[in-house]
What does this fold into?
Amino acid sequence: MKVACFSTTKTDKRQFEKMLTPEMGIEMDYFDVHLSPKTVPLAQGFEAICVFVNDHADAGVIEKLSQYGVSAIVLRCAGFNNVDAKAAERHNIEILRVPAYSPQAVAEHALALMMTLNRKTHKAYNRVRDGNFTLEGLLGFDLFEKTAGVIGTGRIGQETVRILTGLGLKVLAYDPYPNERVTELGGQYVSLDQLYAQSDIISLHVPLIPQTEHMINRETMAKMKPGVMLINTSRGGLMQAKDLIDGLKSGQIGYLGIDVYEQEDNLFFEDHSEEIIHDDVFERLITFPNVLITAHQAFFTQEALDNITATTLDNLQDVKRGSVKAERCVRCEG
Ligand code: NAD
It folds into this structure.
């Protein structure tokens, strides 16, 4: 089966080359560009395409894929907000994903953002290398006995609850579908307003869907404790970035750690160090000393990559066989 792989990095190629075997009967062609209305013609002559978080398959792209005879979109990630599932269904195109590859990797990165923002190890590293051994400006706080709010307690949210309760924080949780494991771990489900009002740290682990889009905005930030730490390793669209800037300027937000950004597809996963960045909101955000941005790397551990590659190759073989696994099939989820 011929597969067009979009947004391919050197790491993706290395991973596939490590795990692809001739018996699988999969022939991969790699493209470094994102899938978009402009690049979709590259999919001509392929039976399936393989995409990542910043590839966009809207209704127009899906119509073209259908005309080219593409029968499946295989995602190398868990979230599928970048694919128009309804349009795919209309055109009988299967969407397959990797629902869980290492929830621990993402939860551990959320912790890394919290710890770095709090204890300022990124600044200390540079200071010490510079021969500056002063502590002024590096003051942190004990996480022990602070209150953390975890919004969304699916796979990654639960791992975040495990880590935070393990560190001795009180953990409040909110999810329309509460999970027993959270209470077993010592977390406590509360209303979203209670979580906002009582948490010193808030970590987002919800999918980007119409109900969660811009859920962190001027109104919701006003319900939070002044100086709150906000962590987002889920999707940039959960936060209204312009409102975050106002919140940071007023001090309502004391710390912001984000691994995702709403307009990240114009920036992340590429080297723009020699260019002028035209995104003024992003540029303003990075000027704050209490903002830490990583470029969508929460998933990026060797264990997670091996799981993503193995599941993606398994999904492609299922497409070839014409029988997909329900738990990885977006259409089966309804
Ligand atoms: P999941 O489907 O296991 O869990 C999502 C949870 O959110 C579910 O329990 C669901 O009930 C809950 N939820 C839905 N709507 C909600 C709402 N309005 N308020 C509160 N909770 C709500 O997903 P997951 O595997 O834990 O992943 C969470 C998100 O993390 C993904 O959707 C993806 O966007 C993101 N992610 C980011 C990275 C990264 O590298 N930064 C990697 C993997 C996943």
Q: What stands out?
A: The two ends are 27 Å apart (CA to CA). The longest strand covers residues 253-258. DSSP finds 13 helices and twelve strands in the chain.
